Amino acid sequence: MTNIPLFRVMREDYWVKPFFKQYKVALAAALFLGFLTFFSAGALMFISGFLISKSASLPTNILLVYIPIVLTRTFGITRPVFRYLERLTSHNWVLKMTSQLRLKLYQTLEQDAIFIKRDFRLGDVIGLLAEDINHLQNLYLRTIFPTVIAWLLYVFIVVAIGFFSWWFALFMLLYLAILVFLFPLVSVLVNGARQQKEKSLKNSLYTELTDNVLGISDWIFSQRGQEYVALHEHSQDQLMAVQAKMKTFQNKRALVFEVAYGLLILTTFIWASGRFTGNHGGEANWVAAFVLSLLPIIDAFAGLSTASQETNSYADSIERLNALPSLRAETQADKEPQAPYDFQIEDLCFRYPNEEKQVLDQLDLTIPQGQKLAILGRSGSGKSTLATLLRGDLAPSAGRISLGGIPVTSIGEAISSYIGVIQQAPYLFRTSLLNNIRLGNDKASLEQVWQVLERVGLKEMVEKLPQGLDTMVDEAGLRFSGGERHRIALARILLKDTPVVILDEPTVGLDPITEKQVLTTFMEELKGKTVIWITHHLKGIEYADRVIFLENGKLEMAGSPAFLAETSPRFRHLKAVDDGEA
Ligand code: ATP
Ligand code: MG
């Protein structure tokens, strides 16, 4: 049994198991009610069978049929009632479980954003959130509960028949075992691989689609859109072929199952006829009772095979969930940095998990509050990585970074009150311009918003817009030019009024004149704040108080621009290149 995914996975699962304990009463109630539902259904038919044949034999006393009539009514009512209650408790249990699972998953993802970024693509994560938890939900409702209920019924039927005939009970024990255990087992084994394939095809369709939709313009610009469509259709055909095969198997299996169940009913009929009509014809009423009671029970057994197949995809989901980093036991109590907000970097080393390359190698650096520090470096030298470390979004592999005396990683969420970031391509959301700016501080008054707009040099432009601040920004802010987007991003930061601002290549993609204007605005408006300005060229370098080069994970050539211009031929050379003189 060890290579049946469900059993293997149930042992290793640390996502769902805790919930068994937490809600064990509800769980037991759901299962018992499920059993009672089928019990009532069977009992209803049993009594009805008895009643029909008893009535047909013209009973001498009305009481002989009166009690069965009352019982028929009772079971007729209890069956839907139990069913309803069973649905209620089991769905309640499952929904409680999955909502907590979603929360746990979300917390895991959020806590380890960098891990996710490295190991999963966006499509994967969406798949994870959308599919895997749904799978768990369905697994319990469609597989585990019905299976356990069917097992309970199985035991009950065998024991009940045992009161009348031990050998027929033994026969039932074996014959029903085929239906209850063998059919599902064969299904898992035969369709298991197909199901696995279906799931992985589906997942890759998800990922591919996300990826390609994000990059759709590149397909179109390269005039290869048709090719992409063909590619996508091919994957889809593969998926459909697998699904068709499974469907055929399921149809055949359903047919065989029904024939087998029909034979069971026939056998019961023959047994009951022999058992109850032999010596005293008076017991013949029980024949119909036994035969009929088996009819509704088929519902409990027929779905088992289909249900058991789900375990394959469940195993897959649990495996993916298990592969996630476990939740940090306790999040540290957030501490508040104290002014002055100096950055203290000591012996900082960093390498991405599972990567060879040491991106940062024993950096030591102090950035006093109010300094304008330019960090220069080639593409890939680790500038953005350093910025991420400074914000505490990544943890150093070794060494320490503290802001105002507190390690940045333990400042927690509050870090955004201390450090503002403007990235290479500031993102604008599809809402009003006002909302986009207020993102920095949702309590800012209109007056304050206009003030910062003036400071970043956008006041006139916004005033000219027919709808002013209520202008809708289309997705990604394409309506605004690069320079305007950067200024809007600056407006956000100014509203937030953080003591430290990190600019990660804030002027990439702007023409030289706009670049200079934007930089001037940035530096003037951020006066008095610590500015960590990441850049790959020397344009506007004179704004910096200090320039540092980041190369091969080390810091080199530190000093003021004027000092470097005097002492470093390399700096002079780079400056000349940037000024277009070399
Ligand atoms: P650019 O000027 O192009 O923005 P950068 O100096 O900001 O470059 P980083 O983005 O910090 O460079 O990257 C530094 C190195 O770390 C690169 O070699 C990059 O390939 C690697 N790297 C960046 N992000 C990750 C990641 N999430 N996982 C693994 N390696 C990464
Ligand atoms: Mg970068």
Fold topology:
Elements lengths: L4 H8 L4 H6 L1 H33 L5 H50 L1 H7 L2 H41 L3 H49 L1 H6 L3 H53 L7 H18 L1 H19 L20 E8 L9 E8 L4 E6 L5 H8 L7 E6 L2 E2 L11 E4 L10 H6 L7 H10 L3 H6 L17 H15 L3 E5 L7 H14 L4 E6 L10 E6 L2 E6 L1 H7 L1 H10 L4
Parallel strand pairs: 3-8, 3-9, 6-7, 7-8
Antiparallel strand pairs: 1-2, 1-4, 4-5, 9-10
Helix pairs in contact: 1-11, 3-4, 3-6, 3-10, 4-6, 6-7, 6-11, 7-9, 7-11, 9-10, 14-16, 16-17, 18-19
Magnesium ion (MG) binds next to α12.
Membrane topology: Multi-pass membrane protein
GO molecular function: ABC-type oligopeptide transporter activity; ATP binding; ATP hydrolysis activity
InterPro entries: AAA+_ATPase (IPR003593), ABC1_TM_dom (IPR011527), ABC1_TM_sf (IPR036640), ABC_CydC/D (IPR014223), ABC_transporter-like_ATP-bd (IPR003439), P-loop_NTPase (IPR027417), Type_1_exporter (IPR039421)
CATH domain topology of the largest domain? ABC transporter transmembrane region fold
Continuous helix count: 19
**Helix amount, in percent?**
55-70%
- CATH architecture assignment of the largest domain: Up-down Bundle
CATH homology superfamily name of the largest domain: ABC transporter type 1, transmembrane domain
Q: Helix/strand-derived class?
A: alpha/beta
What is the count of distinct domains? 2
Just give the CATH class of the largest domain: Mainly Alpha
Tell me the distance between the termini: 74 Å
Order of helices and strands: HHHHHHHHHHHEEEHEEEHHHHEHEEEHH
> How are strands sequenced across the largest beta sheet?
6-7-8-3-9-10
What profile does the largest beta sheet have?
A: 6 strands, mixed
Overall body shape: elongated
Strand content: 5-15%
Tally of strands = 10
Rounded radius of gyration (Å): 36 Å
